[in-house]
Every structure is written in C-alpha cells, then in structure tokens.
Amino acid sequence: MIASTTTAPERTGRVIPFELRARLTRPPAAAAFALYLVIALALFGQPLFDGGTRGCICLGGDEGIFIWSFAWWPHAVVHGLNPFHPNIIYAPQGFDIALGALIPGAALLLAPVTAIAGPVYSYNVAMLLSPVLAAFFAFLLCRRVTGGKFWPALFGGWVFGFSPYMLGALAGHMQLTLIFPVPAIVHVVLRGLAGEISRRRCVILLVILLTALFSFGAEVFVTFSLFGAVALALALVLADAGQRAALLRGGVVPLAIAYAITAVIVSPYLYYAFQPGGLPILLARTDMFSNDLLAFITPLPSLAVGGSQFASTSSNFSAGWIEGGAYLGLPLIAMLILAIRRRWHRLDVKVMVLTMLVVIVCSLGGHLHLNGPTDIPLPWAVGHRLPVLGLAIPSRFTAYAFLIAGILAAAWLARTHRRLIGSALAVLIVVSLWPAVGQGFWRGRPPMPALFTDAAYRSVLTPRDTVLVLPVGIAGYSMLWQSVDDLRFKMASGYVVPPEAPDPYKQDPIYPTLTTGFVIPNVELNAWRFLTTHGITAAVLDPADPQAAPWLGILQHLGWRARAVGGVDVLRPSRSTL
C-alpha cells in the first residue's frame, strides 16, 4: 500500500509532460481550422462584425454577380424555374447564365443563411470561409505528406489558403476563392494510391469533390483538370514500370470514372453552356491578364511589406494585383530551393517541381511580360486559341503553384535538421506575404439605396415592372440591387459575363450609352427604340453617377418624368408619352 501510494504520483508526473508535449506537437486537425478561422476573422471579418448586410468582403465591381447568385439559385429551385435561363434579367428574352461565373453550389449550400440573413450576408460568410477552407484542406494534404507533422502542415496550408492569389480573388471573385476541393481531390487520390480507401470509395469521394468544384467555378474546374493531367502525364513518364502500373490502377482509372460520372451530373449546365453562340474565345485576355515575370519577386499592393514601396514597378503589370497574385517572394523561393535540393531524387518532388514550372510558364500568357509587355511568344499563345481554354485567364493559374509551394515547404520544414533556420525562414515568409489590411481592399461598401432595402418603398417598383437600372454592365449595381430587393422586379439590364464577352445588348447602337453614358448620335431615337423593344416601364439611376447622369436628360426629352425616391431617381413615361 505504501509503495503504491508513493509511486503513483511519480508515474503521473512522467505521463503528464509526455501527453502535453504530444498535444503541442500534434494537435487535432480542428485546431488548424480554428487558427485559420481566427486569422481570417482578424484580417477580413470586419463586414461581418458590421452586420454583414451592407459592407462586403470586396473591393467593388463583380461582387454583385455573386450576391445575385445567392438570391437566384434558391429562388429558382423553390419556384420551379429554369435556373440556367432566368428572364428576370435582360428581360424579356432573358440570359443564359451558364456562360457566366455563377456559383450554384455555394448558393444552394448557404440557402438557409440567405433565407434568414439575406444574400449579402451569405456572400460575406462564403468569402470569409474561402481562405479558411482552402488552407485547412491544404493542411490535411500537407499533414499526410509530412507524416503527421502539425506545424509544418499548418504553414503549408497557410501558404496556399492565404496566398497573394487568394488575396486578389477575395477582392470580389468568389468563383476563384472557393478552391478548397483542389487539395482535397489530391489528398483523396493519394489515399487511393496508398490503398487506404477502396476504389469505390475513392470514386465516390472524387465525384463529390469534382462536382463541388464545378459548381463553385467552372474555370477552376477546367484549369485544375488541365494541370492535373499534366502532373499525371509527368508522373507516368518519370515513373518506373511498377510505379506506372500503380498510378494507372490507383490514380488514372478512378479519376477517369469520377470525371465521367461528374460529366453526367453537370450535363444540364453543359447543355446551356455549349449551345450555339455560347462559350466564346476571348483572345484579348491572354495578354491583358498575364503575369509579368517580375511579379513573382515584386511585392504587390495587396501585401503589407513592400507593397507600396514597389508600386512603381507593380503598376506596370497588366494583370494587376487582383488578377495577378503571383508574388512568391525571395524567402519562399529560397525555401523551395532548399526543399528541391534535398529531395530531388524522389518521383513526387520531380513531378511537383516540373508541374509548377509548367503552371508558371503558362501563367505568363501568350507573350512574355517583363516589366511590361514584349513581343516574345510563349506556349500559351497556342492554348488560348482553343475552345473553353480560350476563356481562361492565365494569371489565375498561380493558384496551383502556391499549392505545390505549400506542399514542398511543409515537407522541407518537417525534415530539416536546422530547426532554428527553418522556423526563422517560415516566419520571414509569413511576414513577406502578410496582407495589407489597412488599405481597405477587402472592406467595400457598395451603394444600397433605400428604394431596394427599405420596405417603405415596396410599392414604387412592382413585379409587373420591367426596370432599366443604369448604367448597364460592370459599371452599374443592377444585380446587387435586384438581389437585395428579393428579385421582385424584372430588369432590362444585368451583368453576368465579362465586358469583352458576347452580350445581347452589344448589337444595339445604344450600347455605349447604356454602359458608359457616352452620348451617341441620334441618341434619343435609339433610346426610344430600345425602351420600346424591351417593354421598359421604369428606369432607375443615381444622378450623381456620371455614367448614368446623361440618361436623366435623354429620358426627360422623351417625355419621362423623374422623381427622387429612396436615394435614387425613378423615371416613368408620362401618359402622353405612352
């Protein structure tokens, strides 16, 4: 009895430090998610703290498309409407939104949030969770690669989820931020290759993830498939006979089956996307939105360290910092060099490095940009002329470079014996890639007139109206205003596809006046023809907006009467005009 009572505390004293050390070195995965969430809230969460219904995690521009999507997809499902061709925009003919960057998967998943708090709040929730989910699923992948090492995997996940690519996309391109299925797909394939899951389960998981990726952003789905195929091809070429057989059996075959099933699931979307006259090839994009070679080592305005100091150089990059989040930085490049030198003999490292080089070269577009455009042709000059790929923006390919960089960096940190040097380099990388939150890049406040948000003005615009919201297109807020007004009225306007893409209004002579306010010859005659053809019963504009202001005089000369209501001017034709 005496011996047992004296030795028990000694055993307990030995066990507790060991358990504590184990918890510190290998915390649960939930701890990584919580850390990423806290970081995201601190960096980008201000709009949610403000109520999440007026401000948004955006810079201003494209966010209206996605806010409208959060309202439209649940609305279409509940009311039994064709979700791919709504007639509440571009009325009366409607528009094929399969051509646009719509996010049906996110909209349907967050439909309960939209029903309770509105589409703007759902948008903010999805944007806030985007880097968190991307970092977390990259963390799971890195943790597997590092043999369960928590802190190196946490760092690798951060490199991907909070990369300059993600910082640019968070300015308003939700179809690019919901990229977390990419590392999840790679993780599932690795588990299938290792025999940890059956082929059937592997295929099921891949179908779920591929369908989710497609529903979040068709562009990311296409480019991931392209560079995934490149990685598989490189692996098959570099592998020995045994490795090649295992890759075919455990990787290529399940992926082929999963892609075939996914194609069937998303076939309604594909049907509308590939209709005659759809999916154009936009050649201007390859050079307009290509990465400059210097962008990989020049801090961008979105970064706290060096962003403003190197603005004179980064301003020459055609893709800017929103589309061109290519900055790796010298500290991360140094860590990647160390990782490659240490493990170049491995097949997986060779495949990742070569794939990363292919991604970077393709991200440079059709012609080399070196502190500005040159005439030197590059490989993507061929790729951008192909169907479907012609819609891709090359500068966005760097998402995959950051994923590979995160994996290689995590693997090196997990195996280096120079712990102090590795930790110092990791801290330096975090500092060099830290976002410039004080610049307000992710705290937009788009105008939301009371006409659309206050129930007191519900009778001004009715479901019987066809409304022209001015200006039309990227410069206007028609999609945002219709969505916060619960899609109650039809619009003879909208903004779904990029300005350079086909648009049903582009053939009309009045198009420049609709989009920019530029007054064309015979503007009143062409305006009258447009108003009559589309059955427009009301027009809404902000007279302080220089691109909408010319319409006030045009419509009044046509006999329309204006009245200020709910923060905007509402115009209707007078009885004599009718």
How would you describe this protein?
- The protein has helices at 2-25, 29-44, 46-49, 63-78, 104-109, 111-117, 119-145, 150-161, 164-169, 174-177, 181-193, 199-216, 218-238, 241-265, 267-273, 284-288, 311-314, 330-343, 347-363, 380-383, 398-415, 419-432, 450-453, 478-484, 511-516, 523-533, 550-557, and strands at 367-369, 373-377, 466-469, 490-491, 538-541, 560-565, 568-573.
- The protein is mostly helical.
- It folds into 3 domains: 2-37; 132-439, no CATH class; 450-573, no CATH class.
- Strands 4-3-5-7-6 form a 5-stranded mixed β-sheet, with helices on one face.
- Helix 7 crosses helix 21 and helix 12 (199-216) packs across helix 14.
- The longest helix has 27 residues, at 119-145.
Secondary-structure blueprint of this entry?
Elements: H1 2-25, H2 29-44, H3 46-49, H4 63-78, H5 104-109, H6 111-117, H7 119-145, H8 150-161, H9 164-169, H10 174-177, H11 181-193, H12 199-216, H13 218-238, H14 241-265, H15 267-273, H16 284-288, H17 311-314, H18 330-343, H19 347-363, E1 367-369, E2 373-377, H20 380-383, H21 398-415, H22 419-432, H23 450-453, E3 466-469, H24 478-484, E4 490-491, H25 511-516, H26 523-533, E5 538-541, H27 550-557, E6 560-565, E7 568-573
Parallel strand pairs: 3-4, 3-5
Antiparallel strand pairs: 1-2, 5-7, 6-7
Helix pairs in contact: 2-7, 4-7, 4-24, 6-7, 7-8, 7-11, 7-21, 8-21, 11-12, 11-14, 12-13, 12-14, 13-14, 13-19, 18-21, 18-22, 19-21
